[in-house]
């Protein structure tokens, strides 16, 4: 069975500083990996996804993530954050064999301080 | 990306009543939709997989008689919370699946008094 661990439940960061959100997964088969952002009282918005190919994936709003198969990680990074990046971020994994059901990590709350 | 809507966006009801939440894919057909539940400051938990034209598949621990799911068309799935109680208060989010990706609705906040 697949599982996802987000190592940091909260990450405070100053505006214009870089941020990295860590995500590790476990699965016995090939997976698809996703990062979503959730603003208060809203649904999820896809930031980026890894399906295959290049391990460095670029997404919206200046975010990028790198798939590391040997370390089973998919960490999310942004070189310079804005106040508007304050939100909850979820890493998720799906397996084609499991009907592409998503399994979510516990989430990381990013608080950008001025 | 594709657009998924939910209605209502929020609802308050009395204990013992039933509440129906609609999930629609607006610009694509979805044979599969998913229903999630999210408690405050927690992650999303998959409740069930809704399949057009067939019965929903429920995750372990989810009562199928309490959370009725109907996927009547390729663009509409409904979740009915029957005989709602305060512990059913939560944020309910649906998603519609394209071949690989899922597109999420904006969520429905249910408060049961």
Protein described:
The complex is a heterodimer of chains A (114) and B (113). Chain A is mainly β. Chain A has strands at residues 3-5, 10-14, 19-21, 24-26, 32-38, 44-50, 56-58, 64-68, 73-78, 87-94, 102-104, 108-113. In chain A, β8 and β9 form a beta hairpin. Chain A is globular and about 45 Å long. Chain B is an all-beta fold and 113 residues long. Chain B contains no helices and eleven strands. Chain B has strands at 4-7, 10-13, 19-25, 32-38, 44-51, 57-58, 67-73, 76-81, 90-97, 102-104, 108-112. In chain B, the strands form two sheets. In chain B, strands 2, 4, 5, 6, 9, 10 and 11 form a seven-stranded mixed β-sheet that branches. The chains are: A mainly beta (114), B mainly beta (113).
Give the C-alpha Rg of chain B.
13 Å
Poorly predicted runs of 5 or more residues of chain A: none
Helical segment tally of chain A?
0
Please describe the biggest sheet of chain A, giving its number of strands, its sense, and whether it closes into a barrel.
6 strands, mixed
Query: What is the strand tally of chain B?
Result: 11
The description of the largest β-sheet of chain B is:
7 strands, mixed
Q: Which whole number gives the mean pLDDT of chain B?
A: 92
Whole-number mean pLDDT of chain A: 92
Low-confidence stretches of chain B: none
- Name the shape of chain B in a single word: globular
- What's the order of the H and E elements of chain A? EEEEEEEEEEEE
The helix content of chain A, as a percent range, equals under 10%
What structural class results from the helix and strand content of chain B? Answer: mainly beta
What's the alpha carbon Rg of chain A, rounded to whole Å? 14 Å
């Amino acid at each position: 069975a697949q599982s996802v661990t987000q190592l940091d439940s909260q990450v405070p960061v100053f505006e214009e500083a870089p941020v990295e959100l860590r995500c590790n997964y476990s699965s016995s088969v090939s997976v698809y990996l996703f990062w979503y952002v959730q603003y208060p009282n809203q649904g999820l918005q896809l930031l980026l996804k890894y399906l295959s190919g290049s391990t460095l994936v670029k997404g919206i709003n200046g975010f990028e993530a790198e798939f590391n198969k040997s370390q089973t990680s998919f960490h999310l990074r942004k070189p310079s954050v804005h106040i508007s990046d304050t939100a909850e971020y979820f890493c998720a994994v799906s397996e084609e064999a499991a009907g592409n059901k998503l399994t979510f990590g516990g989430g990381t709350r990013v608080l950008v301080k001025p | 990306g594709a657009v998924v809507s939910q209605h209502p966006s929020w609802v308050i009801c009395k204990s013992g009543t039933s509440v129906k939440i609609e999930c629609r894919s607006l610009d694509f057909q979805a044979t599969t939709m998913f229903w999630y539940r999210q408690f405050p400051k927690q992650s999303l938990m998959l409740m069930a997989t809704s399949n057009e034209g067939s019965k929903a598949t429920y995750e372990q621990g989810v009562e199928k008689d309490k959370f009725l799911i109907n996927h009547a068309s390729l663009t509409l799935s409904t979740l009915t919370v029957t005989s709602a109680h305060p512990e059913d208060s939560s944020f309910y989010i649906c998603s519609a699946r394209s071949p690989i990706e899922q597109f999420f609705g904006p969520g429905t906040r249910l408060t049961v008094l």
